[in-house]
Each structure stands twice: as C-alpha cells, then as structure tokens.
Amino acid sequence: MNQPKNKSQEKVGEIMELISLKTFKAVVDEAGIKGASDKLNTVQSNISSRIQRLEQELGVRLFQLKGRKLELTANGKLLYPYACQILQLEKQAKDAIRIHEGQYELVIGTPETFAAIHLPRALKGLRREHSHIQPRIYTATSGQLISAVKNNTVDCAFVGGHIINDDFVSIPAVVEKMVKITASDGHYDPVLFVRGEGCGYRQAALAWQREMGNTEQQLMEMSSVDGVLGCVAAGLGYTIMGWDMVRNNRYEDSLAVEALTDHHANLQISLIYKNDCLLETGIQALASFFAP
Amino acid sequence: MNQPKNKSQEKVGEIMELISLKTFKAVVDEAGIKGASDKLNTVQSNISSRIQRLEQELGVRLFQLKGRKLELTANGKLLYPYACQILQLEKQAKDAIRIHEGQYELVIGTPETFAAIHLPRALKGLRREHSHIQPRIYTATSGQLISAVKNNTVDCAFVGGHIINDDFVSIPAVVEKMVKITASDGHYDPVLFVRGEGCGYRQAALAWQREMGNTEQQLMEMSSVDGVLGCVAAGLGYTIMGWDMVRNNRYEDSLAVEALTDHHANLQISLIYKNDCLLETGIQALASFFAP
DNA sequence: TTCAATAGTTCTCAAAAAGAGAATCTTTTG
DNA sequence: CAAAAGATTCTCTTTTTGAGAACTATTGAA
C-alpha cells in the first residue's frame, strides 16, 4: 500500500472492522490483492481500499510494495495472529448460536474423486438422519484441504494418508484398494499417468513408482480422473488409483486392474477436523456413515 | 428488539462487524439501549438498529423486551462471552502495534481522591522518564474501577484494599494513614459523613463504625470530599478518611485529626491490572513512582 | 385514574461509506 | 521492447449509516 497522500488528520483509533480483518487475512493467505479479491469475490480496488482503511485505523502500514508483490511489514506480522484468532472466534460464536438453534451448516472438504465415489451415500444418510445439519461441499486437492481445515475454511475434510498433527482429530473413513490400471488388452506404453499436484493418488503412484525403481519412466499429468483413465484405456500408459475409480467408469470394459501389494495395497482416507471444533458432533454423525 | 416485520429474505451469514459486537456488549453491560447510547455517544435509534442488524446477521434474537427493559435471550447469553473475547483481542492487537510503534496510550483508572492527591507527582515523572507513554485518566469509584479493569475499559486502576482475584496483578502503591476527622473546636454532632456508594473511604468508615458499635448513628452522604470536610469543619459531624485528604485542604485549620488504630490505621491502595495485559511494562513504570 | 417520565422502536432524510469498473502506474517476463 | 501481471487511483452509483423527530409502551407518582 502506498502511504495515504498526506491527509493531515489520520483518524486513528476507530474500531477495526471484521471485514477489514478478513480482507487482511485473505491478502496474506492468498499472497496478494488479486488472490484475495478472487477469494472474497470482489474487485481488486475494493481489497486495496479496505487494506488502506485498516492501515488508517491502526495508524501504521501493514504491507509494503516489493516489486509488484506485497510484503507484510513488522506491524502486519504482529497483526496477523490476532486477525486469525478474532476471525476464528467470530466463526465459533456463530457456530455456537447455530448449534443452539438446532440448524447448522457443516462445510465438508473433499477431493473431487472422493466426492464422486464415496460421499453421496453418506450425504444421503446425513440428510435422512440428521436433517438439522446442512452440508456444504468444498472441493480441493488433499494438500489444499489440510490448510483449509487449519484455516477454518472448512469444518472437516476427507484426506488420504495419515495426519500427524496434535491439533487435528482424524477418523478413519474408508480404505481404498489400490490397483495398477492398464489397458485390458495388455498392451501399454511405460508411461505413468498421474493427476495434478496435491492429489492423494498422485503421491501414492509416485511412491510406488519410486519403490519399483521405475523413476526413469515418463510421467504424464492430467487434471481429471476420467482423462487419465481414457488415456490408459487407449493404451497410452498405466496408472495407480483406487479400485473404486474404475468400477462403473465409462472405460471399465477397456481396463484391467491388478491389486498392489504390501503397504501399497491400501490407501486410508480419513475425515479430519480441528480438535477445538464446535461442530464435532455433526462431524461424527457424518463419520458414522463410514463406520465398518 | 421486536422481530423485523417479515422481510422474507433474512440475510443470514454476513460478516459480524465489531461495531455491532461493541454495541451488543455495551447494551448488556449498561443494561439497556439508553445506557449504551450514552457510553458510545450516539443516539438510541442507532443502537437499536445496530442490534437489529446483528440479530439479522445471526438470524436470531439476542434480546427480548421485558416491560420496558431488554433481557438477553439464550442466544444472547451464548454470544456475550465471544463478544467480550473478540473485543479484547481487538484491543490487544491494537496495543501490540502501538507498543511496537513505541508510542502508546495507557488508560489509568483512579478514584477522584487519589487523582487529586497522589497521582500528579507520578504522572509528572511518567511524562519525564517515559514520554512514549501517553497517560489518560478515567475517574470512577473504587468499585466501578474493578469492573473497568475486568472490562478493559481501563488498562490499570488504583483501588483501595486488597483484591483477591487470580486474574489481576496488584502492586502496592501507597499506604494512607486513616484518621478520624472532627471540627478543631472539639464540638461535633454524632453524625458520620461519608461519600457515595463505591468510595473506598466509605467502606473503611462504615467498617470502623460497625466495630465501634455506633451503628445507630446518623449517616450523611455527600458526593465530594470537600463537601464532607466542609460539613465536618462546621461541626455538623465527623468523618473517617486518609490523612492526606486534610493536608493542604482549605478547611485544614478548622479540622482536628486523630489516627485510627489497629487494622483500621492504614488503607492500602494498590495499582491493579489484568495479568494478560500487554501494557504491563508501562504499568510497572507507573508503579515505580510509588516505590518506597 | 391520569399524567409525566422513561425506555425502546420506527420513520425520514441527509451524509458518509463501500462497491464496481475503467484507467493508470510499475515491475516482471518472454 | 511489448505484453502480462499486480497494485493503485479515480469516478460514479448504490448502499449503509447516523441524527433527529415522532411514536408506542411501561412505570411510577400525584
């Protein structure tokens, strides 16, 4: 932010507003005004002026231009943890009231793949047995989902693998049988198809490939599961995924699967949430639909 | 608040604003819209509409009319502690930045009596040796000051007696010699003059009177120390106060003092503050001017 | 019972603030 | 050096806020 020209009367001491804090946090988290304006769906100029307002209210600069990026000042760094805490309390206050009212929204983070295969059944059950919970789905990659939980962007999320963090509670949801998928005619190129950065299957596939010593193989990245399976069905390569991805897939008949072995055989998918989350009972209700 | 007519689209979910929370807290603390509007210096209609806005944002009622007073609903009671915590964090965030900037405001609560006698010297020293601290004085009775500290209305306060509360830090400031004050000619009516509710001297005086077994004596309440001393000088009664109150007082020559004994002899006045206060070093600087 | 005082709400209008979009400036990148 | 990316500034419109007056309901006193 550039210093406000030279308005002699800097009105310091006015009350900070939450919209300013939310904007501030978004700018920090999304590393810039552009990202923040997308996240908060508004235009850049608004973000810019909200930050300027906040800077005026506090009487200090929070960012400084470094090239064409913004950089937190010392005061900005000081404010950030307070902003997070205040916004979290705001959310908790609302949650507390919603819970008391009986009706509340539960924001569920999930990778697209999980949303397509495993989630629908659980959501149906949730609606039937816990109609006071209004689920809202937020899709992102496993990697992004972990920060989304930390961030309180979502109340809980389904992610692959194990989370080693004391701030989270992790409930096992499903175990996916991991398989190597090839064209059903047995002819395929030695190319490993994977999904983009952040996908749980990608990590599993790369780990498997590494242990097999096939690191020199060509890697092919695609953003959708269907895209990957289509290419594999066409004999352009092979992939590693959960078996469930293949069943009922449009290419199912053209694909052959082979179960992985040992520690690659299964991918544990867990439902995680922060352990100070007020919506815990709702989350456990959701988890109950995955109980064995 | 009366239910908003029947605006079909209740816009629930908008961000809570701090001004709303501050207003909400003020209405609760001051037990009504009137008090809150005085405290936040604005008109009643604004308070009323801010509360209605907040109620809309949350989608619930926070108050209900009980006669011509407002009463917190269950949801209001739920919100209150969050509001307090959020507002306190806001204050702390600002403090953190101010401290980092070097300059900061220290709001000092004091009874009028203390402000007149003991405080000026310390403020002078503070200004000389810690010019980065900008002291602001808030006067109220000892009783009110304790809640003001709890409330974060003030950063610290001078109060009589001992505070038994783990949330406070208490630094001894001065010890006042308590004396019984009468007209210098020895003739006075058996009437005890005291200051209004909440005054530290009043409590001391009443405690002494009780132990002397003079509870049947007439009690006369006056709002100012000078008023009390004037009446006592005129022989209308006697009073119990700190000796310092008499020294250099306009009526000094017409008054006789007699030291109290035992546990009545001294009144400890301490500087208290919340132990999570960021301005601790400033407060200790203030206290240092009272060190023995 | 009536009347004044008190507390809260509603309504209206003017002033202030916030948002959208276009234009501008600056740095980075190809 | 041109194009792209990111941030800021400016303008205009819409929305929100606030002050004040009028209104309603309760309380308390004469």
Overall radius of gyration of chain A: 23 Å
Largest interface: A-B, 26 and 26 residues
Shape of chain A: globular
Largest beta-sheet characterization of chain A: 9 strands, mixed
Could you say what the CATH topology of the largest domain in chain A is called?
D-Maltodextrin-Binding Protein, domain 2
Average pLDDT confidence of chain A is: 87
Report strand % of chain A: 15-25%
Instruction: Kindly state the percentage of residues in helix of chain A.
Output: 40-55%
Number of extended strands of chain A: 11
Q: What is the first-to-last residue Cα distance of chain A? A: 54 Å
Spell out the helices and strands of chain A N to C: HHHEEHEHHEHEEEHEHEEEH
Number of domains of chain A: 3
Write down the CATH class of the largest domain in chain A: Alpha Beta
Uncertain ranges of chain A? 1-13
CATH superfamily of the largest domain in chain A: Periplasmic binding protein-like II
Oligomeric form of this entry? homodimer
Number of helices of chain A: 10
Would you tell me the structural class of the helices and strands of chain A? alpha/beta
| CATH-derived architecture of the largest domain in chain A | 3-Layer(aba) Sandwich
Question: Your description of this structure?
Answer:
Two copies of one chain form a homodimer. Chain A contains ten helices and eleven strands. Chain A is an alpha/beta fold and 292 residues long. The longest helix of chain A is centred in the first third of the chain and has 28 residues, at 74-101. In chain A, 41% of the residues lie in helices and 25% in strands. In chain A, the strands form two sheets. In chain A, strands 3, 4, 5, 6, 7, 8, 9, 10 and 11 form a nine-stranded mixed beta sheet that branches. Chain A has a two-stranded antiparallel sheet with strand order 1-2. At the A-B interface, helix 1 and helix 4 of A face helix 1 and helix 4 of B. Chain A binds a DNA duplex (30 and 30 nucleotides) through helix 3.
